[in-house]
Every structure is written in structure tokens, then in C-alpha cells.
Design a protein that fits this description.
The protein has about 325 residues and is an alpha/beta fold. It is about 45% helix and about 15% strand. Helix 1 (about 1-10) packs across helix 3 and helix 5 (about 70-85) packs across helix 12 (about 285-305). The longest helix has 18 residues, at about 285-305.
Length: about 325
């Protein structure tokens, strides 16, 4: 820092202000310091900085099964938001989801001296493990339950599913079938609740749920079951786009036309959804906003050195209508 100050012709305090983006630095002075930093290849000593500030400027993230689009996109949104806020990120990705594994991951991150942790907690076991957080460690749960002393950021899964189901009913379908996610996922639970609520509010029959596991293979199996009952099935809400892809494949093989015979809605709006055959109507989740809000809540705790367990921020989903939904057969003019 002294070398930068000498080259720029300023004090080391001014260099510090520029590095910390202090507003009370003249534009031309800031430019001169930045040129000196570039010329000298200066990099801050983060270890020395941590000793002075008592902060590592490193955050921990605990996640699960990052092959899936939702969790992977969530982690990417969190990592990007943390980087924009000037923090490094250490990620612990777990293969098995149990309370002991989550606690071990959080403990490992705490030993590394992270300033706080974000736990992507879409499963019950992960949500339960948040009760065992080390005292005083700032933490935010993403897609967890708003219980106890942990702040939560979540997409309104229930509302997204309700909107999707209501859209299909508005197209004249008597009822809507559902291919669900795994029982232990809170997101799957919320989407099923929204589907049931929409049908109940409209006074419609609630069909049996076909259980899936988020994979196209499970959607394909459900699609074969529903294709065999195409005389009574006219609309399906699928709990994620990957399962919807498998379901569309099964329908195509069985000669079931979408949306002429059966309308299909997915959830997530993966990048490929617009290129399915037909293009998939779905519910879009704003993972970038989830990341921004979760990091914002975490930094709020770090800066105030206090708990923010009563914070629960909900991100609204967006419904995207494409070609896989249409008027019910009974509602079409003849």
C-alpha cells in the first residue's frame, strides 16, 4: 500500500479509502490511485485485513445435489451476489442429506472462519439441522421453513403452483392431474399444496398424485400411466421441467397430442423449456433475486452482529405461457 501511495503521490490513508470505495475521494485522485494499483499489480493481503477487521470476508454455502437445475441455479445466484458484495465463497456440497451431514458441513465452514453461512435447505433434514447452528454464527436458509431463529429466503412455491393450476382450469379443463416431486422436499410439498388449493377453491375433483423424483425418467413413467388414461386426463401440472420433458416423451410415443389432447405445465423454466416440443408453459423462479436477498440478509446480520431470525423474504414466481397449454377438448367449438 505504501508503494501505491508513493507512485500515486497520495497518503496510504487515501489508498485505503479508494480500496474501500469511500465516497469522499475526488474522482481524479481515485483514478490516479487505481492506475498505480494496476501498474504495480497490487493485491490486498486478506489475511492481514482479517486480523484488523476481525472479518474474513468469506461466506460459507451448504448445498445438496447441485446437478439439479434448481439447487445449482440457487447456488450460482448466491455466489454471484456474494462476489458483487466483495465476499469470497466456500461451498460445501453434500451427497447425503441428513442432520449429521449438514451439521458437519456447517461446523467445517465455521472452523474456516467464515463470517456467515447460507444453507440451501429444500429438504426437511436440512431444515431441521438449522436448529443446531453454532451460537452467534450469522445464517440464512434458502427454501427452508420459517421456523426458529434462522432468516429465510424462499420462492412462493405454493402460489406458483396455484397459478399454474388456475390457468389450466381457466382453459376449461375439468380438473388437473399432478406429477409431484419427492416427499421429503419442501418445494415439492409447497407445489402440491398450491395445486390442491386451486382445485379445492374451484370445487373440482382432486385426482391421485403421481409421485416423481425430479428426473425425466420418473416423468416418463408418470406419462405412460397418464397416456393410458387419456380419455379422462386433459391437463397435467408437473412439479418440474425435467419431469415434464419425460412426460412429453411418453405422450409422444403413445400418440397423445399436446396441447390438443392434454395440456402440460412445468415448473422452473429451465433454459431448454422454450425448446421442448411443444415449447413448455411453466413457472419461472428468479434465482438471481433469491441470491441477492439471501446475501443481503446475511450481511445485515454480519454488520449488526445480531440475529435476524424473524426475517422471511418471499420471491414471487412468474408464469410463462408457451405452446404446451390450450383449451380443453370439451371447451372447443365444434
Amino acid at each position: 500500500m505504501a508503494d501505491v501511495a508513493k507512485l500515486a503521490g497520495v497518503s496510504h490513508q487515501t489508498v485505503s479509502r479508494v480500496l474501500n470505495d469511500h465516497p469522499k475521494v475526488r474522482k481524479e485522485t481515485r483514478a490516479r490511485v487505481l492506475r498505480a494499483i494496476t501498474a504495480l499489480g497490487y493485491r490486498r493481503n486478506l489475511t492481514a485485513r482479517a486480523l484488523v477487521t476481525r472479518r474474513s470476508h468469506r461466506l460459507g454455502v451448504v448445498s445438496f445435489d447441485t446437478i439439479l437445475y434448481g439447487p445449482a441455479s440457487t447456488v450460482h445466484g448466491i455466489e454471484r451476489a456474494a462476489r458483487e458484495a466483495g465476499y469470497f465463497v466456500s461451498i460445501m456440497s453434500l451427497r447425503t442429506i441428513d442432520r449429521a451431514g449438514v451439521n458437519e458441513a456447517i461446523g467445517h465452514l465455521a472452523e474456516q472462519g467464515v463470517d456467515g453461512v447460507v444453507v440451501v435447505a429444500p429438504q426437511r433434514a436440512a431444515a431441521q439441522a438449522l436448529a443446531d447452528l453454532p451460537p452467534g454464527l450469522p445464517a440464512v436458509a434458502v427454501e427452508g421453513r420459517h421456523e426458529g431463529e434462522v432468516a429465510v429466503v424462499s420462492v412462493d412455491q405454493r402460489e406458483g403452483a396455484r397459478h399454474a393450476t388456475a390457468h389450466l382450469l381457466a382453459l376449461g379443463h375439468d380438473t388437473v392431474w399432478h406429477v409431484s416431486g419427492p416427499d421429503d422436499w419442501l418445494e415439492a410439498e409447497g407445489r402440491q399444496e398450491g395445486w390442491r388449493a386451486a382445485l379445492a377453491a374451484a370445487g373440482r375433483e382432486i385426482p391421485e398424485v403421481l409421485a416423481g423424483d425430479w428426473t425425466p425418467r420418473s416423468g416418463y413413467r408418470a406419462g405412460r400411466v397418464l397416456a393410458a388414461r387419456v380419455a379422462e386426463v386433459t391437463a397435467v401440472f408437473v412439479a418440474n421441467d425435467q419431469m415434464a420433458l419425460g412426460l412429453l416423451r411418453a405422450f409422444s410415443e403413445a400418440g397423445v397430442r399436446v396441447p390438443e389432447q392434454v395440456s402440460v405445465v412445468g415448473f422452473d423454466d429451465i433454459p431448454e423449456a422454450a425448446y421442448f416440443t411443444p415449447a413448455l408453459t411453466t413457472v419461472r423462479q428468479d434465482f438471481g433475486e433469491v441470491g441477492r436477498l439471501s446475501i443481503g440478509l446475511l450481511l445485515k446480520q454480519i454488520e449488526s452482529s445480531g440475529a435476524s431470525g424473524h426475517d422471511h423474504l418471499i420471491v414471487p414466481p412468474r408464469f410463462v405461457i408457451r405452446d404446451s397449454t390450450g383449451r380443453a377438448r370439451s371447451a372447443l367449438p365444434y
